[in-house]
Structures are given as structure tokens and as C-alpha cells.
Amino acid sequence: MRILPEIGPLTKPFWDAARCGQLAVQECPSCSRLQHPPLPVCAHCQAAPLRWRQLDARGVLYAFTVIHHATHIAFADRVPYAVGLVEVSPGVRVLAGLMAGADELRIGMPLVGMFRCISPEVVLIEFATPGSDPGVSTDPR
Amino acid sequence: MTPVGGAAIIGIGQSEFGRRLPQTDWQLALSAISAAVTDAGIDPREIDGICSFTAPFENVPIPAIVRALDLPELTFFAECPLGGEALGAALGHAVAAIETGRASIVLIYRSLSQSSNGRFGRTDAGIAGDDDVDVVAPESQNLSLAWPHGVMSPGHQFAMTATRYMYDHALTFEQLTDALCEVALAQRRYAAANPNAIMRDRPLTRDDYFEGRMISWPLRLYDYCLENDGAVALVIAASTRSRGASPPVRILATSQSLTPYQEPLGFYQRDLGSPFPAAVAERLYGQAGVAPGRVRVAELYDACTLMPLRSLEAYGLAKEGWRHVQEAGIGPDSPLPVNTHGGHLSEGYVHGMNAVTEAVRQLRGQAATQIARADVALVAAPSGSAAILAV
Q1: Out of A65, B67, B262, B327, which residue is the most buried by the measure of CB atoms under 10 Å away?
Q2: Cα B385 → chain centroid
């Protein structure tokens, strides 16, 4: 059993980019602000439609946890696993898996994005400490 | 002290709290309502207003209560969204309805049967399938951006908030968990004296706390609240309507607050370390006409041990919550006793509403661990949802 995202109209460009090993977030065509998660309008100036901007898959750790107790059977064989919020542009954060343990993780540390394929259609962005080998893993779990 | 109006809590009631109780959530709600109505000394058919939490938090709809009590007519009914946000909102709606004449006696109820309707700490209940069938996380509420990473429970968000709290206060894991342990132990001691507490016969030691298994680092087993069945009901009316044996408890002020992504599993709020805008506490105390220092007892929403630390700070009761709980303490002899019933950690989890009943008992002088001179109480959630009550 896997937990896959519904790829709906609002988030499809995000998932399309991830499938190509890229991180993309919404950009306002009027005020150029970036935002994530996607919204129907720019939260700052209400402009729509929004375009998508590809970002460097790099960021800074904003908050994290290491989950030891699975709350869903789909993750029973994954524990412990780290997840966190990674700031990829000022004020823009992405929720993602982290390839590190609690003793390696420090808020404010730089991280680089990696892409893990979990189904033919779905690639998840995950972050690792710099120096880890970035790239697209094609290992379906 | 000038109350905003004459609205008061004139009756409180609760069902049994426990795990896997035989009653349905509807039965539990009616049992709590019956107790509250008796406590208020009113005929249930005098109820003309009802306020509840929204589904999926509250699974007993208002019409089910109207039907079971055979109420002649509700002239006011309202639902409050977002779980812990609803505590201050429900009281606020009731006060507003009474002050504007929309209703004269408003019932508030909250009933949970986590054993039959699913636990907040398990995500399988609603979406389990067999091993060969994938689960699809809906795009709605950004769940599709969280579930595939295994981020599925409010407890995961609490843990991320905890790492942010450590960062903001420059705390080590040991410093944070020493403080959290104090909260868990102090509340368990209160529960030992509380005949309604689920954990009344389960003493907790410091060793037990640190041996508790890690759930979501840095939070361990005893950092998280109970998941249980139980219901609470409140009767709100002008204080002159009170015909019960106990004095009415005045509602001096209520607050609610919502900023972007502050909802449960919101994650993306601008500052994860700041629970709500500072203006919320200013509004609350300003409306009540009391200063934070006037609060004699605080019942602080505690889905995890971190929350009371943050509320102590955000409601102006302590500069550094983590230091305060260790140096001043929160026990019965401390300057400000907190969660005197054992809270959600050790009495039972009824979504903030059993904090209201405990505050009322304290103000009436009827609490299991009675705090001396308890005449002003704060009931508050780290979402900015709160009330100040007084006798």
C-alpha cells in the first residue's frame, strides 16, 4: 500500500515538475511574489491566473520532526523517518521528507532537494544535507 | 470588573470519560446535557439556542439533540469550526446570542467517541484499505502535499512546532524535555485526585516519562493527550436565569483568532513559533477588564505538553513557559495552578470543553483539587481561542 497524492488542477504543475526532477512553485504575474502551497489567486495582490516558477531545489530547514510511531499502516515499515518544512525562498516553505536523523538535523541548516519516484506518476521531493548525492532515484518503494 | 454582558455559565455537565465506552456519542452527549440542565435548575425545553463544534470534529448534529430533547423551537443555532479554535468561539456565540436576544438559554455540547469515530492520532481509520490498494491523499486542504511524506497526524505538527520552539528559545532537547516532563507529571498528580480522570489510578514518575517511547521527536508517549470517549455540556444564560444550587459563573470575555494556515494541519503559517497575534490576548484581557496577573487558575488546552508552555507565554502569564513550569511550577501551591483537573493529558480529551467545566468548578469552589481564592479563571487554547470566567 502506498499513499499517493491526488494530482488535481491546482497542484498538477507542482507534480509535473517533480516528475522531471524539479521544484516549482506559484509565481504572481503581477507582483512576482512566490507562494506555496498553490492557491487560486496571489494571496498578496489577488492576481490570477498564476504562473509557475522553477526554483533551485535548495533550501534551509525551518522545522522538523522524526516520526517513530507510524500513524498509518502504509508507513509502518518506514519508521523512524524525518520530515520537515524547508524554506526554499524567503517565506516559501515546502513540506518534505528529510534524509537524515534527529542528531544530524539543525534548524537553519542548508539542504538540497532530491527526487524519489514512488509510482510511475509520482515523484516526491525530499531533502538531504549538502554533499549527499542529489539526483532522481527511480527506486519505486 | 465589568462583564461584557450578563451572560453566565449556569450549568455544567459531563458524561463518564473513558476508553471504548459502550455508549454512542449521541448517548454520551445526552448524558452530559442532562447533567448540565439539572445543574442549571432549568427545564430542558427552555433551551432555545444550541452551539456545537462542526463535523468532523462533532459527529452529533444539532438536530439530533433537538429531536431527543423534543425542544419546542431553537431560535439560535450555530456551529464553530476547527477543533481547538471552537472553545472560545462557542462561548462567544452563546454570549452574543443572549446579549442580542436571539436566544435566552443556549446549550453548548461536545461529544467524542474516538473508539467508534476514529482517533485523531491514527490516520488509518477513515482511509485504511487492504494492502494492495493505494490510498489517494486529497488535494483539498493540502493533504496531498503532506500525506505522501507520512505527515498525517496533528501530533506530527505539534512535534515540528516543538523543534521550532527549541530553536526560538535556544533550547537543547534535554532542556525542552525536562520542561515537558514537568507538565506531564504535574497534570498526572492533579488527575490522581480527580475521580473523573481516566488516569486517576495511573501515577507517573520522571523515569516513566523518559522511558516513554518516542512518538514524533522530540515528543514522547506522555507528551501526548489521551484519546477517549466522553462528552461535556454547558448551559449559558443571563445570570438572573440561574436556578441551580451553584452560583452563575460570569463570562467576562471570549476570543477567537484565525490567521493563514493556523488551522489544524495548516503547517505553512508565517511563524510556526508564534501561536497567534499579540492583539488577541490584548483584546481578551481588555474586554474582561482584568490584567493577566489577576488570573488565579488557568486551564490551558493541552493536546500535547508543549501547548501549555506556549499558552503561558502567549497569554502573558510567563515570559518563558519552559522555565516557568520548572521554576514556579503549575501545581496546586504554585503562583498560577494550571490544568487542575489533569487536563487532556490525564483527565480526558474533550476538545477543550472539559477545561471549561474545570474552570467553572474552581470558581464555584467545587473542584477536586480546589485552588484557594480562585475567582478569575482563564480557559485558553494556543490557537487564540479563549475565555475569561469569574464569580
Answers
A1: A65
A2: 9
